[in-house]
């Protein structure tokens, strides 16, 4: 009887020794399968000028590093990461189309550019940016369950610009809000000068000194120039900004008779729509978190994590 029990025990032990490797093998296979599925669903971004497509989160790292000072508080960097991720996915249709690494879209610095820019500070700066990306991984901004056009800019003139004020197209989540802390930004105000001869090489019609006192300004609700009129000539504020290459559409043109130069003074830096980066930094310094910052600058939105496998 004992011999029979021992025989059964030996057989069971042999069976167990056979089953365990199979079980572990199946577990590894399952884990590998999950990992493969995640990789298969990963979104890649095609950046113009880059040789290969870039994983979404790696791309967002390069955008945050290029678009926002690394000295900013982490919550501001996190807000920037979520906005940049949303803008990228919306602009590229979830990676199906290429995006330019320019100020007209989103500036992007690859790892080599970041190393060159930060030199000896690279390890610490990279760690800070990557933490902000990882802590917001996959998070995007939605309105009515659709990605928003998450526009952002450096510095407002004290109020952000609405989508309607910028383009004439109203978007419920891009309304004008106060951002008075932007006045402490180093980019808040600027003055640019030209000689009258230089000035007249820019414009299609020649200006006389007396013309500068005849300028008529028409402002929108955010205090930016909607249009500029001189006699029968009319230009939009955006046209003047592009023509003169000035920081914003909150501007004032004058002629200094003492220096013989044309002066254009501006307030704010950028188009003014959506999140102000310096405003985000001010809110972060006051203890606001990334979600609070985003809900302030983008109205009635939701912050959710995307499921790349459903795209």
UniProtKB/TrEMBL annotation:
InterPro entries given in the database record: Bact_Sporulation_Assoc (IPR051922), SpoIID/LytB (IPR013486), SpoIID/LytB_N (IPR013693), Spore_II_D_firmicutes (IPR014225)
Protein name: Stage II sporulation protein D
NCBIfam families, per database record: SpoIID_LytB, spore_II_D
Annotated ranges, domain Sporulation stage II protein D amidase enhancer LytB N-terminal: 52-143
Gene for this chain: spoIID
Pfam families: SpoIID
Domain of life assignment: Bacteria
Organism (species): Lysinibacillus pakistanensis
